[in-house]
Amino acid sequence: MSVTIDITGLPPERVLFAVSPLAELGHALHVLTEPKHHPGLNGWVTSTAAGLKPDLADRLCDADFLWTSVMSDIFLPFAALPEVSGRPGATLAEDLDLLDRLDDEQFVSAALEVSCSNYYAPGTASPLDNPASRAAALDRASARGPRQLQFALRVLDDPEGVRAWLRRLFEDCEQAFFGDVWRRVGVQLAADVRHKSEVLRRKGLRDALAEVSPAVTLDEDGARVTVDKLNSGRATAVDPAAGPGVTLVPSSLGWPHLLVLSAPRWRPVIHYPVGAPEVANPASLDVLKLRMEALAHPMRLRMCKWLARSACTTGELAAEHNISAPEASRHIGVLKKAGLLTTRRRGRYVLHQLDLTVVARLGSDFLEGVLR
């Protein structure tokens, strides 16, 4: 599974690295709502939540589904406006001006996208003028609780009013806490954009994507960008309705989330974390699956207990576990293919041992993979 972006024939100048204050505000709100996703920010969450005025905290609860489980596309409004060529605003106010420029259908589709609609599916009718789509959106919203149903009704009945309400909410967040956050992280994000833009200019897209994340790659013929995620999606960077191009937006608060906007008629956007924990060679999702499957077999799990304590030969493992040497060899082969063993030769003997560093990474690799 992965998300792919078709960039066939896309000129290099149409790939843009840019900073978005509104996108970072979306991540800040997500961190406040889901602190368990971001244990390194617990101190900031505790102090910020304690300082929120009750009225602002209540209003955030009214719309928190926009940033809790999935980040709504309303935080990337520039992607729906071909005339801005994929460039976010320089300030939160400018980003909110772009949000105001979305037409009602764009705004409603993005606001309800998270759990109330399936607007990522091509040909989906708008809930603004299609009774069946409206009923389906409200049915999905009701399953999420009364707050989300009430919000969905407001979005469908008064999109302009909700848009103004959200703008005031985000402006109040800037005054309450996000202004301080942006003054701290904005410089770091701008430096990241300058660096990656220079890599793109001097070395090309492949090297620039390699610095974004090991999970973002360019295929051999340079026609497709693949983002290694546990969901599937496709986008094109040459859609005339969205304007040709791809925008990559860094986030200081976003790790471990690596987000991709791939909605029809919106410009593709990769929203990537910076300042992530240093990992020498993070596992791809395919490798993670291979390792977990290798450890799921009870015999291999028992063998790992021995291999964790000391190096063993195939014969020793076979004798200890009362299995044949060929069967022990097959289990060792599965563990080796998954990258869980180290092997060394001592004279005529081959010794195998569990790679404790790799195994210790499994928990964090799994967590990062499912949250990516």
Protein described:
The chain is an alpha/beta fold and 372 residues long. Helix content is 51%, strand content 12%. It has 14 helices and ten strands. Strands 3-4-1-5 form a four-stranded mixed beta sheet, with helices on one face. The chain has a four-stranded mixed beta sheet with strand order 2-6-8-7. A hairpin with a 7-residue loop joins β7 and β8 (269-273). α12 packs across α13. It is elongated. The protein starts with a strand and ends with a helix.
Alpha-beta content class:
alpha/beta
Overall 3D shape: elongated
Characterize the main sheet.
4 strands, mixed
Radius of gyration: 24 Å
What's the end-to-end separation, in Å? 12 Å
- In N-to-C order, the SSE pattern is EEHHHHHHHHHEEEEEEHHHHEEH
Question: How would you summarize what this structure contains?
Answer:
The protein is α/β, with parallel strands linked by helices and 372 residues long. It has 14 helices and ten strands. The strands form three sheets. It has a four-stranded mixed beta sheet with strand order 3-4-1-5, covered by helices on one side. Strands 2-6-8-7 form a four-stranded mixed beta sheet. It has a two-stranded antiparallel sheet with strand order 9-10.
Question: Can you give keywords for this protein?
Answer:
4-stranded mixed beta sheet, 372 residues, alpha/beta
Chart the SSEs and their pairings.
Blueprint: E1 3-6, E2 15-17, H1 21-33, H2 42-51, H3 54-62, H4 92-101, H5 104-112, H6 131-143, H7 146-157, H8 159-203, H9 205-212, E3 216-218, E4 224-227, E5 233-236, E6 246-251, E7 259-261, E8 269-273, H10 285-296, H11 298-309, H12 314-320, H13 325-337, E9 341-346, E10 349-354, H14 356-371
